[in-house]
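Standup notes
- DV: blocked on the single-chain target, sequence here:
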Amino acid sequence: MPMHSDMHYRTIAVEAIRRAVITEPPVPVERLAASLGVPVREVHLPAFFSGAIIAEDGMPVALINSALGEGTRRRTLAHLLGHVLIVLADPVESYPRNSVPNHREAEAAASELLLPEPLVREQARKWFNDHRYLARLFGVNENEMTHRMRELGIIKARDVLWDY
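- DV (later): unblocked, structure below
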């Protein structure tokens, strides 16, 4: 599998959101999974195990630990969908996967699935960069939202960057 930057994986995620016609936060990751044809099964798993992709008839199925909180289940499903999107974007990949999965790549896609740049920028403008409100709106914690807003240059380390 060729090496790509995180931007490549983020772009794959944004395209999946666009194709699923998701225009408002929070990104409904289960609906996104359905649009990709990936069944999601919540099952009781040990507490240390958040989820997995299994192959059923050669196709991916997402298993999510039902014992975990909603935020963790959403993040886990986004991560698993990141793996699926990476395989779908690579013409030499298939299920069951013929290479060792790279979790860093899947995490770059998952981060974009939960906090897609176009939606974060749009909502930050609407809500005057209120990271607390935006975190609730996107279904993530305040630290994740603050980190994403800093990544995008919406806020600085100590101050809000007002661009209007």
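- Follow-up: The longest helix spans residues 70-89.
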